[in-house]
Specification:
Elements lengths: L1 E5 L4 H12 L3 E6 L15 E5 L3 H9 L3 E4 L11 H21 L4 E6 L8 H19 L3 E7 L1 E3 L8 H11 L2 E3 L6 E6 H11 L9 E6 L4 E3 H12 L4 E3 L32 H17 L9
Helix pairs in contact: 1-6, 3-4, 5-7, 5-8, 7-8
């Protein structure tokens, strides 16, 4: 099967590319010209790389994907630009659906969020795109699968994200400014996510027009509990300044609405236990920390 991954240079995109190569799929990645491709080292002979923008249409014309896995997104974490976020999360995503129609690509797997639209613009834009996707699924013969993820963690993640930030700060003895730590999340290992999405690519496309499913660990931990787990596995006490940051006015303390999203056989409970997943993650960052030279690029 010919599979196109958008956001292919990212944390999940690169890991998923590895997974698909292992099961003998033909893989093309759509990346941005400014992306750092370090996560793709060693995969170059098994993938085709295209750059978004002028080459977005080219990848459909030349590679002729049978399935699109859409991971490219704008979280708004760095250099927040609301217009750019809407262009990425809604307009670019819709353009991909139009290209699927034009080039007869009938399966579209999307990564999404369980956060309510009122939480932030990222959640609002991702949820708005689902409304548009429903139109394509029901009127343009696109089989649309929306994958809602727990809080994903693992090796090679962006250091600005929560778990890598905590690990990096622990290793370097830095203070960690935190809220009260009462928010609970479902933490799921990236290796499990990539395997489950790879299984979804093999799902019978006639099974549904539009569906949502979640990939989760099935267990909720608070921010305090996850930092405690990292401390226990690393053997290092974190310098956490609890309460140094205020909770957001609309803080989401739990994502129990996540449980309302169905789990289909391919996306049943993740296999990796939190302890072993964190151990793999800590080992990788510890190894990277010991290397001489400059740190990895963020993207």
């Amino acid at each position: 099967m010919r599979i196109l991954i958008t956001g292919g240079a990212g944390f999940l995109g690169a890991r998923l590319a590895e997974e698909l190569i292992l099961i003998k799929q033909k893989v093309a990645l759509l990346v941005r010209k400014e992306d750092n491709l370090w996560r793709l080292k060693g995969l170059e002979k098994n993938i085709q790389i295209y750059f978004s923008g002028k080459e977005t249409g080219k990848v459909f014309k030349k590679f002729k994907p049978e399935t699109v896995i859409h991971l490219a997104t704008d979280f708004g974490r760095q250099n927040y630009d609301p217009i750019k976020m809407l262009e990425t999360n809604i307009l670019f995503s819709t353009k991909l659906l139009e290209l699927c129609v034009e080039y007869n690509c009938r399966k579209f797997i999307n990564s999404s969020t369980c956060l309510p639209s009122e939480y932030n613009l990222y959640a609002a834009s991702k949820n708005a795109f689902l409304e548009i996707a429903g139109y394509y699924a029901n009127n343009k013969n696109i089989k649309f699968i929306d994958v809602v993820l727990g809080y994903m963690y693992g090796e090679k993640d962006d250091k600005s994200k929560f778990i890598p930030h905590v690990i990096d700060s622990i290793f370097k003895g830095k203070n960690i400014k935190a809220t009260g730590g009462g928010q609970s999340r479902d933490f799921v290992y990236v290796g499990d996510v990539s395997r489950k999405i790879a299984e979804l690519t093999q799902r019978d496309p006639s099974a549904e027009k539009f569906m949502r499913c979640r990939i989760s660990s099935g267990k909720y931990l608070t921010i305090k509990e996850i930092i405690s787990s990292i401390e226990k596995i690393s053997g290092i006490k974190a310098k956490v300044k609890w309460g140094a940051l205020a909770y957001k006015s609309n803080e989401v303390f739990d994502v129990k609405n996540f449980e309302k999203i169905p789990v289909i056989p391919e996306c049943k409970k993740a296999d990796t236990l939190l302890g072993s997943g964190l151990k793999k993650t800590l080992d990788w960052y510890s190894f990277e920390q010991s290397k001489p030279g400059k740190p990895r690029g963020r993207r």
